[in-house]
Amino acid sequence: MATNVHTSDLYTVAEVASMMRVSKMTVYRLVQAGTIHSIRFGRSYRVPQSAVREYIASTNPGSDYSI
């Protein structure tokens, strides 16, 4: 299954944590639980921008949050 994801559309766990104003551990827990989609590169994770948007939309219905 090939998807077209540009590297500029991928965030590190630290970047996602900063955007959401939570700890990196919280983001790691979301990734491990499968609550937020991620891609693993070796020992690190990258989170697609679309996954962050979907997660925020699912937790805050009707919100107008943009990344």
Low-confidence stretches: none
Measured by DSSP, the beta-strand proportion falls in 15-25%
Assign an overall shape: globular
How many domains? The number is: 1
Number of helices: 3
Alpha carbon gyration radius: 12 Å
The beta-strand count equals 3
Main-sheet strand order equals: 1-3-2
CATH fold node name: Molybdopterin biosynthesis moea protein, domain 2
Output the structural class: alpha+beta
Whole-number average pLDDT?
88
Percent of residues in helices comes to 40-55%
Order of helices and strands: EHHEEH
What is the CATH-assigned architecture?
Answer: Alpha-Beta Complex
Kindly provide the name of the CATH class. Alpha Beta
Largest sheet: 3 strands, antiparallel
Q: Calculate the terminal CA-CA distance, rounded to whole Å.
A: 26 Å
Please give a structural write-up.
With 67 residues, the protein is an alpha+beta fold. It has a single domain, classed as Molybdopterin biosynthesis moea protein, domain 2 (Alpha-Beta Complex). The chain is globular. The model has no long low-confidence stretch (mean pLDDT 88). Pfam families: HTH_17.
